[in-house]
User: Fold this.
Amino acid sequence: MANKPIDSIEALKSVKLRMMPIMGEILAANGCNVVFMSAAEIIPSMERGVIDAGEYSIPALDQTFGFQDVAKYYMRPGFHQPCATQQLVINKKNWESLPEDLKRIIQVACKENQMYMLNDAAARSIKAMEDFEKMGVELVVMPDEMIATLQEWTNAWYEKKVKEDPFLAKVHQSQVEFLKMWAPYKQTEKIPYPDWALSQ
Assistant:
């Protein structure tokens, strides 16, 4: 969220922005004024004018955090985080010591939690967006050309980093291969929403 609309690369470069490390590095390398700070510092920093904009999370969590009290604009989509996941980290030896039935219970519980989290977050974020509008916070949808430039910057960053880190290269290649399979399939599913559903 921000105190001025960020609807172009030029506008993005004109603000002092709190961003998380990876996308922050990418933006900084391309001339943006990035500030790294903890989540707890974002709202006070926006109140005092230390930063003009701050990235945090989904609309529901941004609302809980209080962004609507210090920002006039809400930018979408969240280009810095195209997906969200939940993790359960278990020591490998402890995991291997579990009987198969308990392993299966944990796996099923994790899958169920992931689906619940995604659906619950979407429902609460819809309500948060409605609340933002009532409070006078303006939605700004970033144009396609802006997103395309951000994607170019991101690709260039990864091209450099994968040469430095073999493990990152392995993970990145796996994601690239999946996306090449997934993206064409998802394109066939795109059906435009009817006008009546999009009218305000």
About this structure: The longest helix spans residues 100-134. The mean pLDDT is 93. The CA atoms of residues 73 and 138 lie 5 Å apart.
